[in-house]
Design goal:
This protein has 319 residues and is an alpha+beta fold. The protein folds into 2 domains: 114 residues, Cytochrome Bc1 Complex, Chain D, domain 2 (Orthogonal Bundle), CATH 1.10.760; 156 residues, no CATH class. It is 55% helix and 9% strand. The chain has 13 helices and 4 strands. A 4-stranded antiparallel sheet has the order 1-4-3-2. α4 packs across α6 and α9 packs parallel to α13.
Amino acid sequence: MKKNSIIFAILGFIVLTSCKNESTSKQSADEKKPTEKWDEGLVLMANSCFVCHNPDTECGERVAPPMFKVREHYLDDETSKEEFIDEIVSFVQDPSEEMSYMPGAVNNFGLMPKMNFNKEDLQKIALYLYDNDVSSDEWYEKWENYQTAQKSNDTKKSVNYIEEGRKVANQTKGVLGKNLLSAIQKNGVENAIDFCSTKAIFLTDSMSKVLNTKVKRVSDKPRNVNNKASVEESTYINAFKIAKKNGGELSPKMQEKNGKVLAYYPIETNKMCLQCHGKTNKELNAKTLEKIKMIYPNDLAVGYGENEIRGLFVVEMQK
């Protein structure tokens, strides 16, 4: 009898140990279960493009055409993958009306500002756009799942301050550009100077509140004295000018200061900018110059050419 009790005890121990091992094994497998792997092109597009080209934004609130419209205009039955990627990347790197396939969008939203993107990232975004119908119900379901996953991961992931700041700078740039274009279309270039003097800083400050951060534009050749770059900010502007002159990459800069993160993004001129910031009697006509001098008697923000560094977006984020 005693012998049988010992046997049952041993069997019971084996069963319990087996169950425990199975449970531990299952728990370990769950812990090692990989999180859903999102296409890199989707992640890059969400972080870089959807600030302005957001698929969820209502028509009246858009600052740029949605990406499915971009895809429609650049892709047809005769367009190869290589051609599509090259045309998208070339335009984004150096936007111009001549290179745009979307004159209606340029008329409605203005020419896309020159942004600071990595060429390899742009190629991945263009490839993703080529391979995926971003107007389909199937894609929208994937997009909604991605947003849900991102929200649940927000408390777990480390912050990429350069990318977070880039989104803030780009969204602010989009809002300013849309409102400036509207002022030009309604009142002409010379009368749009009134918009800059009364609305630009107000809109920038408003975006700071909406985006829960602090963003400002500064220049070493300011029009409004409130946009004058500090000595430290001027150092970054000069560094971007040198990089531009030498054909280097205009990578954003970042520093930590007093428990906050400051990120710096170059502002480059394009054709639209030169209507108010170009050379006298060339891009800048006499009426516009007269209006500038009347509102800003100490103006320094003229004499620029295309693709020159005019200043910075400075984004201040809590660490």
